[in-house]
């Protein structure tokens, strides 16, 4: 399972998402859109209009989603 978080500096929901993933012991890769603005068009093409955007393999969601993070934690625990 590969987790990517698209974030920006000083983004409250982004920080909450990173903290929740850290507490869950899940590894992730960060892409800061302030440093890589060329990624924004691809996220908009997927229909995302808010941050963070979290991509897990082929699935993605935006905003702070504790329910989705809990599901990832369970997937990791079962080794799926």
TrEMBL record:
Residues in the signal sequence: none
Superkingdom of the organism of origin: Bacteria
Keywords: Disulfide bond, Electron transport, Redox-active center, Transport
Record Pfam families: Glutaredoxin
CDD domains linked: NrdH
InterPro entries membership: GlrX_NrdH, Glutaredoxin, Grx-like_ET, Thioredoxin-like_sf
Domain Glutaredoxin: 3-60
Entry similarity comment: Belongs to the glutaredoxin family.
Stated role: Electron transport system for the ribonucleotide reductase system NrdEF.
Cross-referenced PANTHER family: GLUTAREDOXIN (PTHR34386), GLUTAREDOXIN-LIKE PROTEIN NRDH (PTHR34386:SF1)
Protein name: Glutaredoxin-like protein NrdH
Gene name in the database record: nrdH
